[in-house]
Automatic annotation (TrEMBL):
Radical SAM core domain residues: 16-190
Organism in which the protein naturally occurs: Xylanibacter rarus
Ranges in coiled-coil conformation: none
Protein name: 7-carboxy-7-deazaguanine synthase
Binding-site list for S-adenosyl-L-methionine: F35, C36, D37, G68, S111, P112, K113, Q150, P151, C152, D153
Amino acid sequence: MRVNEIFYSLQGEGYFTGTPAVFVRFSGCNLSCSFCDTEHTTFTEMSEEDIVREVCAYPAAHVVITGGEPTMQLTASLVDRLHAVGKYVQIETNGTYPLPEGCRVDWITCSPKYRPVVLMHIDELKVVFQTPEQDMSQYDGMEAQVYSLQPCDVNDDRRNAVILKDAVEYCLSHPKWRLSLQTHKIINVR
């Protein structure tokens, strides 16, 4: 498997914000989003056993499989191996690929990006919010336990402040959505 990095930190966004977690970042993505803030092109080839061994070097039970786009490489056997050592497995995906057959991920965070979502079940819908003119109606039919609205970080403090203000107003006007800040950037952790 092509692994960009494995690291230990706090989950910085979404439903599990603040949760200590081991992040397994796979290399590669099927999309090229202008606002992507993740370097995920380099990699080290690792076996499933290598990944589990490195994950187990950290004390957290929560594991976040992310990318790039992790479903391009994720296997049911990796998830099973992580469960076998007592890990809770969350995936962060753009939803453009289905999970592999038999893959029993504990929590699916789907953050759609410009392409139709093919996942049949998601736990959290996390939308990157860029502007009040953004067509949010495209998410009306998507069912999830949690609806998170995350202001887009455009690396411009003034513009970010406007986006945040607009996202807060959207949540207040549409209370099924909850604000998801990128707290890892705010508190300066990975």
